[in-house]
Amino acid sequence: MTERVVLAYSGGLDTSVAIGWIAEETGAEVVAVAIDCGQGGEDLDVVRQRALDCGAVEAVVADAKDEFASEYCIPALQANALYMDRYPLVSALSRPLIVKHLADAARYHGATMVSHGCTGKGNDQVRFEAGLAALFPELKVLAPVRDSGMTRDKAIAFAEEKGLPIDVSKKSPYSIDQNLFGRAVETGFLEDIWNGPIEDVYSYTDDPSAPRAADELVIGFTNGVPTSIDGKELSPLQIIEEMNRRAGAQGVGRIDMVEDRLVGIKSREVYEAPGAIALIAAHQELENVTVERELARFKRGVDQRWGELVYDGLWFSPLKKALDGFIAEANRHVTGEIRMVLHGGRAVVTGRRSEASLYDYELATYDTGDTYDQSLARGFIDIWSMPAKIASLRDQKLS
To answer: What is the pLDDT of residue 170?
Structure first.
């Protein structure tokens, strides 16, 4: 029986060439799997037909936008996930979703191998292979670009030799990955970290310096999940799409950073994540209102570790699963509304309200009606500072 390889298929040059390349190198049949994570571009039926025309024996396409929004983007939002305090895990979030579909396809089609088009310098190779190791450890992995010397020049020559139906004449100066949660741009002149990004780098966001009226909106949350905009109930997918549109129109979510890659090198990355950045800002502020202090302090460390695990390709790890439970519990009372103004590249919270609020006006006010007994503060400070005071007296005595 002929072996089968499931290929993570994008419809572009490298993965289209990989279909024939894998067949020649291994003698295996190729099943192409393309996943729509909200990246836009070509129609999925066009992508499917191209895979078949390039020699795939089967081509599977899946519209996974709702799944991506609900099961990957929303958990990241609840974790306020910002790698290195800035990057909202745009590409890192889509990889475990793709891996899940690859593993499912491998089981369904009886494949013994899975292939991806990642290079040996990036994070995605780790995310794909670590995820597959967790979900389907028996599978072998093929990485033609990394392991078989399938350079772009060789890929173009192969496509021309075989007459593959793929346009090889146009080459963007950038490497771009995008999905529902944002857009990542690298390479080209951006590899000189002194060069500033120019306007044609951006696609999801308008120029934040252009004059325009501010946009005010109210985002409703239930248990840490955004459920409405301006009082209209929406699905997670609809909310992220709407926030991308409105925050993007105000230039919100542009990020230019030098990032620590998992493989040990630093990389200059430019991101656009208008909806993600605005929603995380709103969620963080509602947590400030509804989450008890010690829980909030501890959660900030958990959030950082959760983001690192996802960035590092460990979505399916036991620790990530355990942290999911903590984060869900911590979001149990994160219900209410946040008023936000989008303008000039910023998403600024201007109001918050919640039935689960821990803010007590009568305790917080400095005006008449204050119920806070300030006389208690003196004894509290004496006890709180006692260890430091005793240590200081000891040091003076011994000096």
So the answer is: 57
Instruction: Please give the model's pTM, rounded to 2 decimal places.
Output: 0.94
Whether residue 16 is annotated as binding a ligand: the answer is yes
Q: Please state, as a whole number, how many other Cβ atoms lie within 10 Å of the Cβ of residue 371.
A: 10
The DSSP annotation for 37-86 comes to SS--SS-HHHHHHHHHHTT-SEEEEEE-HHHHIIIIIHHHHHTT--BTTT
In this predicted structure, the answer to whether residue 58 has a pLDDT above a threshold of 70 is: yes
CA distances from 369 to 111, 289, 356, 358 (A): 71, 21, 22, 18
Catalytic residue, chosen from 175, 203, 235, 392, is 175
The kind and range of the H/E element at 266 are strand 266-272
Q: Compute the average pLDDT of residues 292-302.
A: 98
Angle subtended by helix axes 90-109 and 293-311, to nearest 10: 60
| Nearest C-alpha neighbor of 273 from the set 97, 43, 66, 38 | 38
14 appears as a binding residue in the annotation: yes
> Is there a catalytic annotation at residue 95?
yes
Q: Please tell me whether 167 is known to bind a ligand.
A: no
368: alpha, beta or left, given left = phi > 0 and alpha = psi -120 to 50?
A: beta
Query: How many residues comprise the chain?
Result: 399
Q: Find the catalytic residue in 4, 50, 95, 352.
A: 95
- The predicted-structure confidence for 203-226, as pLDDT tens digits, reads as follows 999 999 999 999 999 999 999 999
Specify whether the CB–CB gap between 131 and 315 falls below 8 A: yes
Average pLDDT of span 375-396: 96
Which listed residue (4, 48, 94, 124) is catalytic? 124
DSSP labels, 290-317: HS-HHHHHHHHHHHHHHHHHHHTT-TTS
399 is in an annotated binding site: no
